[in-house]
Amino acid sequence: MLASSSPRRVGLLRLIVPEFAVRPPGVEEGPIRRPADLLEAARRKARAARESPEEIVIGADTAVFHRGRCFGKPRDPGEARWMLSRLSGDWHHVYTGLVALRGDREVRELVLTRVRFRALSPAEIDWYLSREDVLDKAGAYAIQGAAAAFVAELRGDFTNVMGLPLGALYRLLRELGWRPAPVVTEGGRR
């Protein structure tokens, strides 16, 4: 069960777990001042969404950090423009706090991906903001969209930048006893 309403997280999880429930937790994430705060936010989400101790519940929270400052979701287009101008031509860190619960067990990981944007002109930032709705995206960009053109270098898990690091999640799910099931089609195995 995924404790999120993010369509990006739903799509990513579906790559490794074809069938699962989505249950938005309806809790406040709380202030994010440092990367470790993301783990606590993910834990709150997972615990709030859990209905049965037998189910596996996944919570995640992602933020962008640049020079020690957290860039969460921008409040408005002006703040989005400011964030992108700060990320321009520099490295930033994308962290996701990932928590999975089953029964009385909790496994967690803080995943880091480093991203470097090439230098962006104000016109490029305006072009990007006219193309995509970024108010629900940490750091005011979606790497799976047109912002991919801004990336000069990436070190780490690409899916982490999208909000759900699949490599780490796969390991955590296996720690909780989950195993991938083979996909069976009408004509047999696929």
Write the layout of secondary structure elements.
Layout: H1 7-16, H2 36-49, E1 57-66, E2 69-71, H3 77-87, E3 91-102, E4 105-117, H4 122-131, E5 151-155, H5 158-162, H6 166-175, E6 184-185, E7 188-189
Antiparallel strand pairs: 1-2, 1-3, 3-4, 4-5, 6-7
Q: What is this structure, in a nutshell?
A:
The protein is an alpha+beta fold and 190 residues long. The chain is built from six helices and seven strands. Helix 3 crosses helix 4.
Task: Characterise this structure.
This protein has one domain: Maf protein (Alpha-Beta Complex), CATH 3.90.950.10. Helix content is 32%, strand content 25%. The chain has six helices and seven strands, in the order H-H-E-E-H-E-E-H-E-H-H-E-E. It has helices spanning 7-16, 36-49, 77-87, 122-131, 158-162, 166-175, and strands at residues 57-66, 69-71, 91-102, 105-117, 151-155, 184-185, 188-189. The strands form two sheets. The chain has a five-stranded antiparallel beta sheet. A two-stranded antiparallel sheet has the order 6-7. A hairpin with a 2-residue loop joins strand 3 and strand 4 (105-117). The radius of gyration is 17 Å and the shape is globular. The model has no long low-confidence stretch (mean pLDDT 94).
